[in-house]
Amino acid sequence: MAQISDLSNITKALAGDAPASSDYDLNSDVSLPPGRKLKPAAVLMPIIECADGPRVILTKRSARLKHHPGQIAFPGGKVDDSDADAVAAALRESQEEIGLAPENVEILGCLPSHETVTSYTVSPFVGRVKAPFVPTPEAGEVAEVFSVPLTFLLEPANFRIERRRWQGVWRSFYVAPYGPYYIWGATARMLKGLADRVQS
Known about the structure:
alpha+beta, 20% helix
């Protein structure tokens, strides 16, 4: 495996302060109640070196799932009581969902928390995959594991705003289509946050 490309720009960007994000960022008409209770969750943005340069690993959720079927997502999930902390949850879920061993990940940093419409507060961790591995999708939950060039995801111009009706109301959100994959919602918003910080 070739030496992974220099990721110091990402590490530097993650070290700075930035405001939290949410699924409501583009919808100023939404008034969120103070004191609302959010469930903790964590995801991993795994960066792996490939022949064409570093790429970010993503998953396509199974169409049979009750929540977010068929959507593009990072490996991750809710923080369990047995997890030492949020990063431990992200690494555990990544191993369960795509077979990525925790010891094969170097955490580069964390993006600000992201609030979802499903009442989760998500901690997004960025990690470098240290050695090659063969993804093993979790049966019943992950339909596909794929990757997108990091250079594509770090270009803010590759993100655009779309909207659709949700629960009878128009809602705007970020999208970053790549080939047959429609990256949108919370996943696109967190990636847009990383792109903005690296380019600023």
